[in-house]
Amino acid sequence: MSVDIPLTVSGTPISSPLKDVRGLAQHMVGHFVETVAPCGTLPGDAIHGDVTTITRTCLELAVGMLDGRDLPEKTKRLEQAAAQWAREGIPIDTIHHAIHEGFKIGFELVISSAATQHIRQDEPDGETTLALSVTDFMNMMDGAKLVVELLDRMTSAVAMAYVRELRSVVSEHHTAVHTLTSALLGGHSTSTMARECGIEIADSYHVLAVSIPAHPEEQDPAVDGKVVARRKLRRVQAELATRCTGQALSLLSVDGGTILVPVAEGSDEGLDALVDQLSRAAQVPVTATLVSAPPPRLPDAADQAHELLDIVQRLGLVRGLFRFDELALEYQLTRPGPGRDHLGSLLDTLEEHPELLETLQVHISNNLNRQRTARLLHVHTNTVDYRLKKIGQLTGFDPTQASGLWYLRSALVARTYEAG
Questions:
Q1: CA distance 320 to 341
Q2: Which of 283, 313, 333 is the last residue in one of the domains?
Q3: Torsion sign across C-alpha atoms 286, 287, 292, 293
Q4: Most CB within 10 Å of its CB: which of 238, 348, 359, 404?
Q5: Do 37 and 151 belong together in one domain?
Q6: Distance of alpha carbon 411 from alpha carbon 383, whole angstroms
Q7: Which of 316, 333, 350 is the last residue of a domain?
Protein backbone atom coordinates (compact mmCIF):
# COMPACT_ATOMS: atom_id res chain seq x y z
CA MET A 1 0.00 0.00 0.00
CA SER A 2 1.17 3.54 -0.66
CA VAL A 3 -0.36 7.02 -0.35
CA ASP A 4 0.36 10.19 -2.31
CA ILE A 5 -0.62 12.72 0.34
CA PRO A 6 0.08 12.96 4.09
CA LEU A 7 -2.34 11.06 6.31
CA THR A 8 -3.99 13.36 8.85
CA VAL A 9 -6.27 13.26 11.87
CA SER A 10 -8.23 16.47 12.45
CA GLY A 11 -5.95 18.17 9.97
CA THR A 12 -2.78 17.18 11.83
CA PRO A 13 -0.35 14.77 10.09
CA ILE A 14 -0.33 11.34 11.72
CA SER A 15 3.48 11.46 11.57
CA SER A 16 3.67 14.51 13.85
CA PRO A 17 4.68 12.56 17.01
CA LEU A 18 7.63 11.15 15.08
CA LYS A 19 8.95 14.42 13.67
CA ASP A 20 11.53 14.93 16.43
CA VAL A 21 13.64 12.23 14.86
CA ARG A 22 16.83 12.99 16.76
CA GLY A 23 15.27 13.11 20.24
CA LEU A 24 13.02 10.10 19.62
CA ALA A 25 15.96 8.08 18.27
CA GLN A 26 17.93 8.71 21.47
CA HIS A 27 14.91 7.64 23.55
CA MET A 28 14.48 4.45 21.52
CA VAL A 29 18.17 3.54 21.71
CA GLY A 30 18.08 3.97 25.48
CA HIS A 31 15.09 1.63 25.55
CA PHE A 32 16.97 -0.92 23.41
CA VAL A 33 19.92 -0.91 25.79
CA GLU A 34 17.63 -1.54 28.76
CA THR A 35 15.25 -4.12 27.28
CA VAL A 36 17.04 -5.84 24.37
CA ALA A 37 19.72 -7.75 26.33
CA PRO A 38 22.42 -8.14 23.65
CA CYS A 39 22.19 -4.42 22.82
CA GLY A 40 23.47 -3.57 26.28
CA THR A 41 26.71 -5.43 25.57
CA LEU A 42 27.55 -3.46 22.43
CA PRO A 43 30.45 -0.97 22.59
CA GLY A 44 29.52 2.61 23.41
CA ASP A 45 30.64 3.92 20.03
CA ALA A 46 28.33 1.41 18.32
CA ILE A 47 25.36 2.40 20.52
CA HIS A 48 25.82 6.15 20.14
CA GLY A 49 27.07 5.90 16.59
CA ASP A 50 25.76 3.37 14.12
CA VAL A 51 22.76 2.11 16.13
CA THR A 52 21.50 5.64 16.78
CA THR A 53 22.05 6.64 13.16
CA ILE A 54 20.12 3.65 11.85
CA THR A 55 17.29 4.28 14.33
CA ARG A 56 17.01 7.83 12.95
CA THR A 57 17.03 6.39 9.44
CA CYS A 58 14.14 4.06 10.29
CA LEU A 59 12.17 6.95 11.81
CA GLU A 60 12.78 9.11 8.74
CA LEU A 61 11.55 6.26 6.56
CA ALA A 62 8.41 5.91 8.72
CA VAL A 63 7.68 9.65 8.63
CA GLY A 64 8.21 9.69 4.87
CA MET A 65 5.79 6.85 4.22
CA LEU A 66 3.10 8.34 6.52
CA ASP A 67 3.52 11.66 4.71
CA GLY A 68 3.07 10.01 1.33
CA ARG A 69 6.76 9.92 0.35
CA ASP A 70 8.88 6.88 -0.42
CA LEU A 71 12.53 7.10 0.64
CA PRO A 72 14.40 4.24 -1.10
CA GLU A 73 17.78 5.61 -0.04
CA LYS A 74 16.76 5.05 3.60
CA THR A 75 16.00 1.39 2.85
CA LYS A 76 19.40 1.11 1.15
CA ARG A 77 21.09 2.54 4.24
CA LEU A 78 19.31 -0.04 6.39
CA GLU A 79 20.54 -2.86 4.11
CA GLN A 80 24.12 -1.57 4.38
CA ALA A 81 23.87 -1.50 8.17
CA ALA A 82 22.46 -5.06 8.25
CA ALA A 83 25.42 -6.27 6.16
CA GLN A 84 27.82 -4.62 8.60
CA TRP A 85 26.05 -6.21 11.58
CA ALA A 86 26.36 -9.60 9.93
CA ARG A 87 30.13 -9.17 9.67
CA GLU A 88 30.31 -8.00 13.28
CA GLY A 89 28.42 -11.09 14.45
CA ILE A 90 25.40 -9.30 15.92
CA PRO A 91 22.60 -11.91 16.02
CA ILE A 92 19.80 -11.25 13.54
CA ASP A 93 17.14 -11.98 16.16
CA THR A 94 18.56 -9.12 18.25
CA ILE A 95 18.23 -6.77 15.28
CA HIS A 96 14.65 -7.81 14.56
CA HIS A 97 13.73 -7.58 18.23
CA ALA A 98 15.08 -4.02 18.38
CA ILE A 99 13.12 -3.08 15.23
CA HIS A 100 9.88 -4.40 16.73
CA GLU A 101 10.54 -2.64 20.04
CA GLY A 102 11.03 0.60 18.11
CA PHE A 103 7.79 0.04 16.22
CA LYS A 104 5.88 -0.49 19.45
CA ILE A 105 7.15 2.84 20.80
CA GLY A 106 6.44 4.72 17.58
CA PHE A 107 3.01 3.18 17.04
CA GLU A 108 1.97 3.94 20.61
CA LEU A 109 3.00 7.59 20.14
CA VAL A 110 1.01 7.90 16.91
CA ILE A 111 -2.12 6.28 18.34
CA SER A 112 -1.94 8.26 21.60
CA SER A 113 -1.54 11.54 19.75
CA ALA A 114 -4.50 10.82 17.46
CA ALA A 115 -6.67 9.69 20.33
CA THR A 116 -5.89 12.78 22.43
CA GLN A 117 -7.34 15.03 19.76
CA HIS A 118 -10.70 13.23 19.87
CA ILE A 119 -11.27 12.53 23.55
CA ARG A 120 -14.56 14.06 24.70
CA GLN A 121 -15.69 14.23 28.31
CA ASP A 122 -19.42 13.68 28.73
CA GLU A 123 -21.52 15.19 31.46
CA PRO A 124 -22.65 14.51 34.12
CA ASP A 125 -21.02 11.10 34.74
CA GLY A 126 -17.54 12.26 33.70
CA GLU A 127 -16.95 9.34 31.37
CA THR A 128 -14.68 9.88 28.35
CA THR A 129 -15.35 8.67 24.83
CA LEU A 130 -13.33 8.66 21.64
CA ALA A 131 -15.16 10.26 18.71
CA LEU A 132 -13.62 10.00 15.26
CA SER A 133 -15.00 11.28 12.00
CA VAL A 134 -15.29 8.79 9.17
CA THR A 135 -12.40 10.48 7.35
CA ASP A 136 -10.14 10.42 10.42
CA PHE A 137 -11.06 6.80 11.11
CA MET A 138 -10.18 5.78 7.54
CA ASN A 139 -6.90 7.70 7.74
CA MET A 140 -6.07 5.90 10.99
CA MET A 141 -6.78 2.57 9.32
CA ASP A 142 -4.59 3.51 6.35
CA GLY A 143 -1.88 4.59 8.77
CA ALA A 144 -2.00 1.22 10.54
CA LYS A 145 -1.70 -0.56 7.20
CA LEU A 146 1.29 1.60 6.31
CA VAL A 147 2.94 0.72 9.62
CA VAL A 148 2.55 -3.00 8.85
CA GLU A 149 3.91 -2.43 5.34
CA LEU A 150 6.83 -0.48 6.75
CA LEU A 151 7.61 -3.22 9.27
CA ASP A 152 7.52 -5.79 6.46
CA ARG A 153 9.87 -3.68 4.34
CA MET A 154 12.36 -3.14 7.15
CA THR A 155 12.49 -6.73 8.37
CA SER A 156 12.73 -8.04 4.79
CA ALA A 157 15.51 -5.58 3.92
CA VAL A 158 17.45 -6.49 7.06
CA ALA A 159 17.00 -10.24 6.62
CA MET A 160 17.96 -10.31 2.94
CA ALA A 161 21.02 -8.08 3.36
CA TYR A 162 22.10 -9.92 6.53
CA VAL A 163 21.84 -13.39 4.98
CA ARG A 164 23.50 -12.26 1.76
CA GLU A 165 26.45 -10.82 3.65
CA LEU A 166 26.63 -13.79 6.01
CA ARG A 167 26.85 -16.14 3.04
CA SER A 168 29.66 -14.01 1.67
CA VAL A 169 31.49 -14.12 5.02
CA VAL A 170 31.03 -17.89 5.29
CA SER A 171 32.23 -18.34 1.71
CA GLU A 172 35.31 -16.21 2.36
CA HIS A 173 36.09 -18.12 5.56
CA HIS A 174 35.50 -21.48 3.86
CA THR A 175 37.84 -20.53 1.01
CA ALA A 176 40.49 -19.33 3.46
CA VAL A 177 40.23 -22.49 5.58
CA HIS A 178 40.31 -24.65 2.44
CA THR A 179 43.48 -22.86 1.29
CA LEU A 180 45.09 -23.20 4.73
CA THR A 181 44.27 -26.91 4.96
CA SER A 182 45.63 -27.52 1.46
CA ALA A 183 48.82 -25.69 2.41
CA LEU A 184 49.27 -27.76 5.58
CA LEU A 185 48.74 -31.02 3.70
CA GLY A 186 51.04 -29.82 0.93
CA GLY A 187 53.89 -28.97 3.31
CA HIS A 188 53.84 -25.24 2.51
CA SER A 189 54.35 -22.31 4.85
CA THR A 190 51.07 -21.46 6.57
CA SER A 191 51.84 -18.74 9.11
CA THR A 192 50.60 -15.87 6.92
CA MET A 193 47.49 -17.76 5.82
CA ALA A 194 46.70 -18.73 9.41
CA ARG A 195 46.80 -15.09 10.51
CA GLU A 196 44.52 -14.10 7.62
CA CYS A 197 42.06 -16.87 8.56
CA GLY A 198 42.24 -16.08 12.24
CA ILE A 199 43.18 -19.71 12.94
CA GLU A 200 45.98 -20.78 15.25
CA ILE A 201 48.09 -23.66 13.93
CA ALA A 202 48.16 -26.51 16.46
CA ASP A 203 51.36 -28.15 17.69
CA SER A 204 50.12 -31.54 16.46
CA TYR A 205 47.15 -32.95 14.57
CA HIS A 206 45.18 -36.15 14.36
CA VAL A 207 45.01 -36.86 10.63
CA LEU A 208 41.82 -38.71 9.69
CA ALA A 209 41.50 -40.23 6.23
CA VAL A 210 37.74 -40.58 5.76
CA SER A 211 35.58 -42.66 3.45
CA ILE A 212 31.90 -41.70 3.07
CA PRO A 213 29.97 -44.28 1.04
CA ALA A 214 27.07 -43.36 -1.21
CA HIS A 215 23.70 -42.79 0.42
CA PRO A 216 21.08 -45.33 -0.75
CA GLU A 217 19.03 -42.53 -2.33
CA GLU A 218 21.99 -41.55 -4.53
CA GLN A 219 21.25 -44.66 -6.60
CA ASP A 220 17.49 -44.04 -6.74
CA PRO A 221 16.58 -43.11 -10.34
CA ALA A 222 13.58 -41.15 -9.09
CA VAL A 223 15.80 -38.81 -7.03
CA ASP A 224 18.55 -36.40 -8.05
CA GLY A 225 21.60 -38.29 -6.74
CA LYS A 226 23.84 -35.22 -6.84
CA VAL A 227 21.49 -33.32 -4.55
CA VAL A 228 21.37 -36.27 -2.14
CA ALA A 229 25.18 -36.44 -2.10
CA ARG A 230 25.58 -32.70 -1.47
CA ARG A 231 23.04 -32.80 1.35
CA LYS A 232 24.95 -35.73 2.88
CA LEU A 233 28.19 -33.74 2.71
CA ARG A 234 26.61 -30.64 4.26
CA ARG A 235 25.32 -32.73 7.17
CA VAL A 236 28.80 -34.16 7.75
CA GLN A 237 30.42 -30.71 7.61
CA ALA A 238 27.84 -29.25 9.99
CA GLU A 239 28.33 -32.12 12.46
CA LEU A 240 32.12 -31.73 12.26
CA ALA A 241 31.87 -27.99 12.94
CA THR A 242 29.56 -28.62 15.90
CA ARG A 243 31.57 -31.44 17.48
CA CYS A 244 34.96 -29.78 17.02
CA THR A 245 33.75 -26.22 17.72
CA GLY A 246 35.31 -24.96 14.51
CA GLN A 247 38.81 -26.21 15.42
CA ALA A 248 38.97 -29.01 12.84
CA LEU A 249 40.31 -28.39 9.34
CA SER A 250 39.00 -30.49 6.50
CA LEU A 251 39.11 -31.18 2.79
CA LEU A 252 36.00 -33.23 2.14
CA SER A 253 34.02 -34.26 -0.91
CA VAL A 254 30.85 -36.33 -1.16
CA ASP A 255 32.87 -39.57 -0.92
CA GLY A 256 35.36 -38.59 1.79
CA GLY A 257 38.65 -36.78 2.24
CA THR A 258 40.94 -35.62 5.04
CA ILE A 259 40.18 -34.10 8.45
CA LEU A 260 42.76 -32.48 10.73
CA VAL A 261 41.80 -32.39 14.41
CA PRO A 262 44.17 -30.63 16.85
CA VAL A 263 45.54 -33.23 19.28
CA ALA A 264 44.77 -30.89 22.17
CA GLU A 265 41.10 -30.77 21.09
CA GLY A 266 40.39 -34.45 20.47
CA SER A 267 41.00 -37.28 22.92
CA ASP A 268 41.68 -40.75 21.59
CA GLU A 269 38.29 -42.01 22.77
CA GLY A 270 36.60 -38.87 21.49
CA LEU A 271 37.76 -39.59 17.94
CA ASP A 272 35.87 -42.91 17.91
CA ALA A 273 32.76 -41.03 19.01
CA LEU A 274 33.38 -38.38 16.37
CA VAL A 275 33.42 -40.97 13.58
CA ASP A 276 30.21 -42.49 14.95
CA GLN A 277 28.59 -39.05 15.00
CA LEU A 278 29.68 -38.36 11.43
CA SER A 279 28.13 -41.70 10.42
CA ARG A 280 24.83 -40.69 11.98
CA ALA A 281 24.95 -37.31 10.27
CA ALA A 282 25.79 -38.84 6.89
CA GLN A 283 23.18 -41.60 7.41
CA VAL A 284 25.76 -44.07 6.04
CA PRO A 285 28.62 -45.99 7.75
CA VAL A 286 31.69 -43.74 7.71
CA THR A 287 35.11 -45.41 7.87
CA ALA A 288 38.29 -43.59 8.91
CA THR A 289 41.95 -44.25 9.67
CA LEU A 290 44.13 -42.26 12.04
CA VAL A 291 47.73 -41.08 12.06
CA SER A 292 49.02 -38.24 14.27
CA ALA A 293 51.80 -35.82 13.38
CA PRO A 294 53.10 -32.25 13.89
CA PRO A 295 52.52 -29.74 11.04
CA PRO A 296 55.85 -30.37 9.21
CA ARG A 297 55.01 -34.09 8.89
CA LEU A 298 51.37 -33.71 7.90
CA PRO A 299 51.90 -34.50 4.18
CA ASP A 300 53.51 -37.88 4.98
CA ALA A 301 50.96 -38.59 7.72
CA ALA A 302 48.07 -37.89 5.34
CA ASP A 303 49.56 -40.21 2.70
CA GLN A 304 50.00 -42.93 5.29
CA ALA A 305 46.46 -42.48 6.63
CA HIS A 306 45.00 -42.83 3.16
CA GLU A 307 47.12 -45.91 2.49
CA LEU A 308 45.66 -47.42 5.67
CA LEU A 309 42.19 -46.46 4.52
CA ASP A 310 42.84 -48.23 1.23
CA ILE A 311 43.80 -51.37 3.17
CA VAL A 312 40.60 -51.17 5.22
CA GLN A 313 38.50 -50.81 2.08
CA ARG A 314 40.27 -53.62 0.21
CA LEU A 315 39.76 -55.97 3.13
CA GLY A 316 36.16 -54.88 3.61
CA LEU A 317 36.65 -54.30 7.33
CA VAL A 318 33.67 -53.19 9.41
CA ARG A 319 33.07 -49.47 9.70
CA GLY A 320 34.60 -47.26 12.38
CA LEU A 321 37.98 -45.75 13.19
CA PHE A 322 41.22 -47.71 12.66
CA ARG A 323 44.59 -46.66 14.04
CA PHE A 324 48.02 -47.43 12.61
CA ASP A 325 48.90 -49.91 15.34
CA GLU A 326 45.81 -51.94 14.43
CA LEU A 327 46.92 -52.18 10.81
CA ALA A 328 50.72 -52.17 11.12
CA LEU A 329 51.03 -55.78 9.92
CA GLU A 330 48.68 -55.24 6.98
CA TYR A 331 50.49 -52.01 6.12
CA GLN A 332 53.86 -53.76 6.01
CA LEU A 333 52.46 -56.61 3.94
CA THR A 334 51.41 -54.14 1.25
CA ARG A 335 55.03 -53.16 0.58
CA PRO A 336 56.17 -54.67 -2.78
CA GLY A 337 58.71 -57.47 -2.71
CA PRO A 338 59.19 -61.27 -2.88
CA GLY A 339 57.57 -61.75 0.54
CA ARG A 340 54.31 -60.22 -0.64
CA ASP A 341 54.42 -62.23 -3.87
CA HIS A 342 54.90 -65.48 -1.94
CA LEU A 343 52.09 -64.74 0.49
CA GLY A 344 49.72 -63.88 -2.35
CA SER A 345 50.38 -67.24 -4.00
CA LEU A 346 49.20 -69.14 -0.91
CA LEU A 347 45.61 -68.65 -2.01
CA ASP A 348 46.07 -69.81 -5.60
CA THR A 349 44.37 -73.10 -4.74
CA LEU A 350 41.15 -71.19 -4.00
CA GLU A 351 40.87 -69.64 -7.46
CA GLU A 352 38.63 -72.49 -8.61
CA HIS A 353 36.44 -72.05 -5.50
CA PRO A 354 35.33 -68.37 -5.47
CA GLU A 355 32.76 -69.06 -2.75
CA LEU A 356 35.59 -70.16 -0.43
CA LEU A 357 37.65 -67.05 -1.16
CA GLU A 358 34.59 -64.87 -0.55
CA THR A 359 33.84 -66.66 2.71
CA LEU A 360 37.40 -66.18 3.93
CA GLN A 361 37.35 -62.48 3.15
CA VAL A 362 33.93 -61.84 4.70
CA HIS A 363 34.79 -63.92 7.79
CA ILE A 364 38.02 -62.00 8.41
CA SER A 365 36.37 -58.62 7.80
CA ASN A 366 33.73 -59.52 10.40
CA ASN A 367 36.32 -60.32 13.07
CA LEU A 368 35.65 -64.07 12.76
CA ASN A 369 32.01 -63.73 13.78
CA ARG A 370 30.39 -66.87 12.29
CA GLN A 371 26.81 -65.66 12.74
CA ARG A 372 27.48 -62.34 11.05
CA THR A 373 29.40 -64.02 8.24
CA ALA A 374 26.55 -66.47 7.65
CA ARG A 375 24.01 -63.66 7.65
CA LEU A 376 25.95 -61.60 5.10
CA LEU A 377 26.51 -64.63 2.85
CA HIS A 378 22.89 -65.77 3.28
CA VAL A 379 23.96 -69.26 4.36
CA HIS A 380 23.72 -71.38 7.51
CA THR A 381 26.51 -71.22 10.09
CA ASN A 382 27.19 -74.89 9.42
CA THR A 383 27.94 -73.94 5.82
CA VAL A 384 30.43 -71.37 7.06
CA ASP A 385 32.11 -74.03 9.22
CA TYR A 386 32.26 -76.43 6.27
CA ARG A 387 33.81 -73.82 3.99
CA LEU A 388 36.42 -72.83 6.58
CA LYS A 389 37.36 -76.49 6.96
CA LYS A 390 37.63 -76.82 3.17
CA ILE A 391 39.87 -73.72 3.02
CA GLY A 392 42.21 -75.37 5.52
CA GLN A 393 42.35 -78.56 3.46
CA LEU A 394 43.12 -76.76 0.17
CA THR A 395 45.67 -74.23 1.47
CA GLY A 396 47.25 -76.17 4.31
CA PHE A 397 46.42 -73.40 6.79
CA ASP A 398 43.59 -73.93 9.26
CA PRO A 399 41.56 -70.69 9.66
CA THR A 400 40.31 -71.84 13.05
CA GLN A 401 43.88 -71.88 14.42
CA ALA A 402 45.85 -68.72 15.24
CA SER A 403 48.89 -69.62 13.13
CA GLY A 404 46.79 -70.66 10.14
CA LEU A 405 44.61 -67.57 10.37
CA TRP A 406 47.71 -65.36 10.53
CA TYR A 407 48.99 -66.76 7.23
CA LEU A 408 45.58 -66.66 5.56
CA ARG A 409 44.94 -63.05 6.59
CA SER A 410 48.42 -62.05 5.42
CA ALA A 411 47.90 -63.90 2.15
CA LEU A 412 44.58 -62.16 1.63
CA VAL A 413 46.18 -58.74 2.14
CA ALA A 414 49.04 -59.54 -0.24
CA ARG A 415 46.70 -61.04 -2.86
CA THR A 416 44.43 -57.99 -2.74
CA TYR A 417 47.35 -55.69 -3.56
CA GLU A 418 48.79 -58.10 -6.07
CA ALA A 419 45.48 -58.03 -7.93
CA GLY A 420 45.42 -54.24 -7.69
A1: 30
A2: 333
A3: negative
A4: 359
A5: yes
A6: 23
A7: 333
Q: What is the pLDDT of residues 3-27, one digit of tens each?
A: 556 677 666 777 787 778 788 878 8
Strands, DSSP E only, in 138-211? 205-211
DSSP-derived pairing of the beta strands 320-323 and 287-293: parallel
Q: Nearest Cα to 362, choosing from 401, 399, 395, 320?
A: 399
Would you say 341 and 418 are in contact if contact means Cβ atoms under 8 Å apart? yes
Q: Is position 149 within any domain?
A: yes
**How many CA within 13 A on the CB side of residue 163?**
6
Give the list of residues 6+ apart from residue 247 with CB closer than 8 angstroms, or none: 202, 261, 262, 265
Nearest to 56 by CA among 90, 15, 26: 26
Residue 162 phi/psi, 5-degree rounding, is: -65, -50
Give the structural domain span for 370. Answer: 338-419
Same domain, 243 and 123: no
In a domain? residue 194: no
Q: What is the C-alpha to C-alpha distance for residues 76 and 404, in angstroms, rounded to an integer? A: 77
Instruction: Give the whole-angstrom CA distance, residue 300 versus residue 152.
Output: 56
Give SS3 for 106.
Answer: helix
